[in-house]
Amino acid sequence: MKRIGVLTSGGDNPGLNACIRAVVREGLDLGLEVMGIRRGFAGLLDGEIAQLTARSVGGIMSRGGTILGTARCPEFYEVSGRREALRTLNRFEIEGLVVIGGNGSLTGALELWRMGFPVVGVPSTIDNDVTGTDTAIGVDTALNTIIDAIDKIKDTATSHNRAFLIETMGRHCGYLALASGIAGGAEIVLVPEVETTYDEITDKIEAAYIRGKPHCIIVVAEGWKPGTEALAEYLSSRQETVGFSVRLTRLGYVQRGGSASALDRILATRLGAAAARGLVEGHGGHMAALAQNAVTMVPLPDALSCTKELSSQMWELAQVMER
Ligand code: ATP
């Protein structure tokens, strides 16, 4: 193998540049040329490809986002789109590909592998919903951003004796809400995986008020049903019961930005380097993953076989810490 490509796909996060840098520098160390593909699979179809050098990835580790850009690419769901991608890879004499992204991007990578092209995936998503790895690139930085926001909101909530609904990202997976709820000292955590009724929530807030808590922080994953806004309306209409007046803050895209944490930079560097090495060592069709703090290569079909479950241990812990 003489030349490999690297692309970032799906949702962005601050660890992507550290990962690109690692793929390039490990690739160069292995005697490879490394080509950067812009805008994920979309750039692969359009031939937006240029060589990356040790210098061109210098100084990017502390920058959020991705120097390659990222995109969603509907054409890639179709065989015809992936065939076009293979033509481009042939045209640029790229013999192996590192795909950095979440479940969708890794599924795209697997489909390309099934068409006979060597691909290694790297899990990168703030949702932490990729099975087969303890954590993904971007999770730690997003958590730090959320915790910083919770701390600040707690200050104002305490001053005014308020209950705050803080909505985090996580349409299907409540990991960000649960982990930030534990780390941010939330009174209540609401996730899509666990059904919680209005009555249960009202009881908890009322109990917190009666216990003399000066605030009530409720961290809500965006995928929790019936939804943050509906809950805010309901609680506002029950202020006499719950005690606190209620406010809502949606953290939104701020959770994807910023400079990567030390943990994310190290994780991204380890997984990116392992992915480049994995291509040379014939681990196409695998994902570079973290298991018990060791880097491993997991077959992509295994990594994508099922939905990652929320840790029941962490959920129980959050319930105890709510007191
Ligand atoms: P995030 O977790 O941040 O949302 P993601 O990688 O899961 O990231 P998606 O939008 O699901 O983001 O997928 C990114 C791209 O991967 C899609 O736009 C598409 O090009 C490709 N892709 C996703 N699913 C498939 C699939 N089943 N087959 C082929 N390609 C796919």
What would you say about this model in short?
The chain has 12 helices and 11 strands.
Give an account of the 3D structure:
- Strand 10 (about 285-290) and strand 11 form a beta hairpin.
- The model has no long low-confidence stretch (mean pLDDT about 95).
- Helix 1 (about 15-30) runs parallel beside helix 10 and helix 5 crosses helix 6.
- The protein has helices spanning about 15-30, 40-45, 80-90, 105-115, 140-160, 175-185, 200-210, 230-235, 240, 260-280, 300-305, 310-320, and strands at about 5-10, 35, 50, 95-100, 120-125, 160-170, 190, 215-220, 245-250, 285-290, 295-300.
- A seven-stranded mixed sheet has the order 3-2-1-4-5-10-11, sandwiched between helices.
- It contains twelve helices and eleven strands.
- By secondary structure, it is of the alpha/beta class.
- Adenosine-5'-triphosphate binds near residues 10, 72 and 101.
